[in-house]
Amino acid sequence: MQSLDDAEFMFRFRLSKPAFNSLLIKLMPFIRVTSTRNNGVSPLHQLLLTLRFYALGTMLISVADFVGVSISTAGRIVRDISSAIANLYDEYVVIHQQSAEKFYHIAGFPRVLAAIDCTHIRIQSPCHVIGEEFRNRKGYFSLNVQAICDADLKFMNVIARWPGSTHDATIFNNSILRAQCDAGLFGNRWMLGDSAYPNRPYLLTPLINPVTEAEQRYNEAHIKTRNIIERTFGVWKRRFPVVALTLRLSLPKVQAIIIATAVLHNICRNHNLEEVPSEVELPIVEINEDMYFSEVQDVSERAALVNNFFR
């Protein structure tokens, strides 16, 4: 905190010093020093160690050496701090209806609540009994994480508990978000999803075979507007490489890290922090091209929009 200037600090820990200090204050009630011997690791150092782990995405031994603790202590710290940050989810990850105008300015698509999609977070096989449930269509083990975002690249909802083999539509159909939409909680707003999702009155998907000019304009506006969720995933994974690389931790720790980094991503957006380059080489962010949703769908809302607005 004292020896590094703001740019160097943000490069190493992905947060600015003011953002770090405000986060530390919020976490203080949840952070405990478990040992009185040899001066237990202070909350300041616990948070620095965890942020360094998120920034590097490497083995725990790297960040353990950084603070001067054992690997087991580093693992416990990452677990505790990740859970503490994840507890701030309801404060920082909130569904709101204030982005419709910003979404409209992207490509002229009206009444948009959010863009929705899934992304795969690589993990090691949990165990030989259920491991194959986590192998996705591309052959590696993962969690299939669903998220929605606003026009400012902020997460508004994140679900991080489904195995990599799960279809995107299954995650949505079994979510609280779907129940909220069915109950009409968001009024006449729409979410935009790709063809892996079912077309619903509140969830619009692209037309598979557009024919008329109105249908082509609809698809073009839909694709440009929905691309915001792909950008959000990219910014998130570049800022916190731990979710772009393979997480070699237990499932509860992995889920806590995913939610914690999503909260930190929104904190960074709230503080208008610029993107910082990664210290490690990252794989290309994959677009989650799941299979088309093939069941009977409600297309009346989409047809009305195409015919009455995009015509």
Automatic annotation (TrEMBL):
<dbReference type="GO" id="GO:0016787">
    <property type="term" value="F:hydrolase activity"/>
</dbReference>
<protein>
    <recommendedName>
        <fullName>DDE Tnp4 domain-containing protein</fullName>
    </recommendedName>
</protein>
<dbReference type="GO" id="GO:0004518">
    <property type="term" value="F:nuclease activity"/>
</dbReference>
<dbReference type="Pfam" id="PF13359">
    <property type="entry name" value="DDE_Tnp_4"/>
</dbReference>
<keyword id="KW-0540">Nuclease</keyword>
<dbReference type="GO" id="GO:0005634">
    <property type="term" value="C:nucleus"/>
</dbReference>
<comment type="similarity">
    <text>Belongs to the HARBI1 family.</text>
</comment>
<keyword id="KW-0539">Nucleus</keyword>
<keyword id="KW-0479">Metal-binding</keyword>
<dbReference type="GO" id="GO:0046872">
    <property type="term" value="F:metal ion binding"/>
</dbReference>
<feature type="domain" description="DDE Tnp4">
    <location>
        <begin position="116"/>
        <end position="266"/>
    </location>
</feature>
<keyword id="KW-0378">Hydrolase</keyword>
<dbReference type="InterPro" id="IPR045249">
    <property type="entry name" value="HARBI1-like"/>
</dbReference>
<dbReference type="InterPro" id="IPR027806">
    <property type="entry name" value="HARBI1_dom"/>
</dbReference>
